[in-house]
Amino acid sequence: xxNLSSWLIVFFIIMFxxxxxxxxxxxxxxxxxxxxxxxxxxxxxxxxxxLALVPFIFKRKIxxxxxxxxxxxxxxxxxxxxxxxxxxxxxxxxxxxxxxMLIALIAITLGVVAVFDILFDKARMKNPVNKxxxxxxxxxxxxxxxxxxxxxxxxxxx
Length: 158
Known about the structure:
It is a single chain. By secondary structure, this protein is an all-alpha fold. The protein has one domain. The chain has 7 helices and no strands. Helix 1 runs antiparallel to helix 2, helix 2 packs across helix 3 and helix 3 runs antiparallel to helix 4. The chain starts with a helix and ends in a 7-residue tail after the last helix.
């Protein structure tokens, strides 16, 4: 990860995860907070899944980005869709509904941006993994063996 944008995306993912932890804890304690989780059990499972996926997103694994997007789209998508349909039908909505819609939009946008950032990463395309040659060129132990062998050849010069 050499781009500032990649670092910022992972940073925002971690910040959003922390926010969702706060929402889950406050929802579990039945305390007054900005919003409540839709389903507390799914929310807790989602938190652990995202916590496991963040290091892989940091390592630029495309499958982790896709799973991250899929999990957030599964959890936040229906709520976002129903709120958008309520806005289109001009129903009376509260500020909490708009806030839930904003949070769901941020969650899905973070997933989409993470996937596209991994897909269009130029360093990932410039330095692909080649198993046929990487064992030779990226193997420090092989270089050390050659260096040790070369150091033992002490020929006398006349």
